[in-house]
Amino acid sequence: MLFGVCFCADDEDAFMLVPEIIAKYGYPVEEHFVTTADGYIVNLHRIPYGKDGVSENRPAVLVMHGVSSSSADFIIAGPDKALGYVLADAGYDVWLGNSRGNRYSRNHTYLSPDTDKKKFWDFSFHQLAVFDLPAMIDHITATTAQEKIFYVGHSQGTTIFYVLCSEKPEYNDRFRAHFSLSPVVYMHNLDSVPFQTMSWYHKQLEYFVNLYGAYEYGNVNDPSHAASQQYCNSTNVIHQEYCKTLIFMNSGYNEDQFNYTLLPITMGHTPAGISMFQVIHFFQECRSDHFRQYDYGLTENMVVYGQANPPDYNLANVVAPVYLFYSKNDYLSNEKDVLRLNSELPNVKALMLMSDPLWTHLDYLWGIDAKTIVYQPLIDLMNAN
Ligand SMILES: *[C@@H]1O[C@H](CO)[C@@H](O)[C@H](O)[C@H]1NC(C)=O
Ligand SMILES: *[C@@H]1O[C@H](CO)[C@@H](O)[C@H](O)[C@H]1NC(C)=O
Ligand SMILES: *[C@@H]1O[C@H](CO)[C@@H](O)[C@H](O)[C@H]1NC(C)=O
Q1: What is the pLDDT of residues 32-85, one digit of tens each?
Q2: Beta 216-217 vs 274-275: how paired, if at all?
Q3: Which of 16, 52, 270, 308 has the most crowded CB, counting CB atoms within 10 A?
Q4: Whose CA is nearest to atom 12 of ligand 1?
Q5: Based on the number of CB atoms within 10 Å of its own CB, is 336 exposed (0-12), middle (13-18) or buried (19 or more)?
Q6: Is the pLDDT of residue 9 over 90?
Q7: Residue 97: what pLDDT?
Q8: Given the CA of residue 13, which atom of ligand 3 is nearest to it?
Q9: 368 close to ligand 1 (CB < 6 Angstrom)
């Protein structure tokens, strides 16, 4: 159904929340609210077991989404397709995290995301790593009594793992293994033209964000959210092709793996909400070719870091076992950058090149054959660890 739109029952998934969707498909689901050391309240969605029912000794796995996404990434493709369900059916206790600022974690013990904007949204991916992740991991350990857990990250979900393990090396010990689906650390060689182009203007962007107080991006209550969902759900072929092309320009072209039926559903869940400083921090990485902390500019860097340039994250600290899943057609994770990461990490167990040469950034989530190309090899490695 190349140009068709399926007005099937699943369309309602675009308007439902993640725990409702999981329950609708007959899986058990729990919501866990966790408070970070700096007062944010982040929300984990847990699928404690799969279709086979309750069993003992289910290893816990934390799964972290990419920038401007949410736990929805790992369930909207549906049972037997989406990673969340596939992991639960494979015997794992699945914890889908939500980083601060997205629709499920837009919450704080004393700051309001709407009336204390400047303070609430003052974070980049650094804070997601050093505050949100420790709170989530400690909570999973406290709940399951498992000292060590698995961690699967996609895109920014990988970035924050490397930041955490370099900044708080004591957390290395808490992972049985980490799996990077499309590692995003070095970003100088990205093929995404829109992303590269915008990255040149990160200083101007930061100026405007501060000037207008436009810190938050992708609030689901924003009218543009429903509009883009409607637009991409149109029976108009031109609209659908336009939406698809925008996605391909940013993430890579792979016609065979693109599921049109999923398009309006994904648009209902993405963007899920971020701070613009996350994006600006990524843009800085594109330009600097460093993996390092937020660049505030010379004067403020002296105040914050005591040096002119932000400090690099020390990848030599990342001693947890790591598996890198990558491809040669991923516009947001270039092979050269992945190989550089591989050469600087002390404990890479395997470099997994995806068998489809056209595999893209979003195919890890929504590719029609993601289960056979990514999830099955992933689970085989998890079972062996
Ligand atoms: C496309 O997505 C829909 C909705 O999740 C699903 O029912 C369908 O099986 C998918 N198509 C393929 C070819 O995987
Ligand atoms: C904020 O967190 C509390 C738990 O501390 C939760 O009950 C509430 O629903 C959350 N609010 C939002 C808007 O997520
Ligand atoms: C797509 O459009 C149809 C017809 O207007 C509507 O019934 C359906 O709810 C829409 N789905 C989404 C996900 O927007």
Answers
A1: 999 999 999 999 999 999 999 999 889 999 999 999 999 999 999 999 999 999
A2: antiparallel
A3: 270
A4: 368
A5: exposed
A6: no
A7: 98
A8: 13
A9: yes
Alpha-carbon distance of 141 to 139, in angstroms, equals: 5
pLDDT digits (tens, 9 = 90+) for 277-322: 999 999 999 999 999 999 999 999 999 999 999 999 999 999 999 9
Which residues have C-beta atoms less than 6 Å from ligand 3? 7, 11, 14, 229-230, 233, 264-265, 268
What is the per-residue DSSP string for 270-306? SS--EEHHHHHHHHHHHHH---BS----HHHHHHHHS
Q: Which of these is catalytic: 124, 155, 251, 333? A: 155
pTM (whole model) above 0.90: yes
CB-based contacts of 143: which residues, under 8 Å, 6+ apart?
A: 32
Residue 231 · residue 224 · CB < 8 Å: no
Tell me the helices (H) and strands (E) count for the chain, helix number first.
17, 10
Nearest CA to ligand 3 atom 9: 11
Q: What is the pLDDT of residue 236?
A: 76
Three-state secondary-structure class, residue 19: helix
- pLDDT tens track for 78-132: 999 999 999 999 999 999 999 999 999 999 999 999 999 999 999 999 999 999 9
* Annotation says 361 is catalytic: yes
Q: Are strands 60-64 and 41-47 parallel, antiparallel or unpaired?
A: unpaired
Answer for the pair 27, 99: CB distance below 8 angstroms, yes or no.
no
| Distance, CA of 180 to CA of 151 (rounded, Å) | 8
Q: Is the CB of 75 under 6 A from ligand 1?
A: no
Q: Which residues of 200-233 are buried (b: 16+ CB within 10 A; e: fewer)?
A: eebeebbeebeeeeebbbbbbeeeebeebbebbb
- Residue 353: strand pairing partners: 326
Query: N- to C-terminal Cα distance for the chain?
Result: 40
Nearest Cα to Cα of residue 71 among 34, 41, 40, 46: 46
* 3 state DSSP class of 178: strand
Atom of ligand 3 nearest to the CA of 14: 13
Q: Which residue, judged by its Cα, is nearest atom 12 of ligand 2?
A: 107
Residue 223: its H or E element: helix 223-232
Whose CA is closest to atom 4 on ligand 3? 7
